[in-house]
Amino acid sequence: MPIVTVTRRLRFNAAHRVHNPALSDADNTRLFGKCNNPNWHGHNYTLDVSVRGPVAEDTGYVIDLGALRAIVEREVLSQTDHRNFNIDVPYMQGINPTTENIVVAMWQVLGPAIAPATLQRLRLWETENNYVDYSGE
Ligand SMILES: Nc1nc2c(c(=O)[nH]1)N=C([C@H](O)[C@H](O)COP(=O)(O)OP(=O)(O)OP(=O)(O)O)CN2
Ligand SMILES: [Zn+2]
């Protein structure tokens, strides 16, 4: 049976401040620059969710991409879209909202929610220039 990876793209926007409270204000400014702005800034994020598995004989699907969209919207985007990562988002409490940390936290929510399908990769675009990949390691 062929093993195929399918990907669903979703979009959301959110505010954040990249900030490590364990560091001084001066160090936060030095490390994070404009991204440490106390009054927040926002991004239009793009999230690519990839699921890998066998192609079912009856449907020809690895997973129904509409069902995958619904899971991501219910489990992650409903708590994230038009929110502030530093304040509003339950799975980011106490975590510095870099793209790396966000994608790892999203994986921890989505991995179990997508089972028994296998989450293969999350790719989170923070800007049109910057993205991070995570595969659960
Ligand atoms: N490794 C990481 N580096 C940076 C992150 C991150 O999450 N991981 N985040 C930021 C800031 O959030 C910043 O807001 C990113 O936006 P920006 O610097 O405007 O990036 P652009 O690519 O859109 O713009 P350029 O000015 O052309 O770089 C920074 N670093
Ligand atoms: Zn930012």
UniProtKB/TrEMBL annotation:
Cofactor(s) the record lists: Zn(2+)
Free-text comment on the cofactor: Binds 1 zinc ion per subunit.
Reaction equations catalysed: 7,8-dihydroneopterin 3'-triphosphate + H2O = 6-carboxy-5,6,7,8-tetrahydropterin + triphosphate + acetaldehyde + 2 H(+)
Keywords: Lyase, Metal-binding, Queuosine biosynthesis, Zinc
Pathway: Purine metabolism; 7-cyano-7-deazaguanine biosynthesis
SUPFAM superfamilies: Tetrahydrobiopterin biosynthesis enzymes-like (SSF55620)
EC number: 4.-.-.-
Entries under InterPro entries matching the protein: 6-PTP_synth/QueD, 6-PTP_synth/QueD_sf
GO MF annotation, one: 6-carboxytetrahydropterin synthase activity
Residues annotated to bind Zn(2+): H16, H41, H43
Pfam family, one: PTPS
Class of this enzyme: lyase
GO biological process: tRNA queuosine(34) biosynthetic process
Active site per the UniProt annotation: C35 (proton acceptor), H82 (charge relay system), E126 (charge relay system)
The UniProt record lists the keyword Membrane: no
Signal peptide: none
TM ranges: none
Similarity comment text for this entry: Belongs to the PTPS family. QueD subfamily.
Name recorded for this polypeptide: 6-carboxy-5,6,7,8-tetrahydropterin synthase
Natural source organism: Gemmatimonas aurantiaca
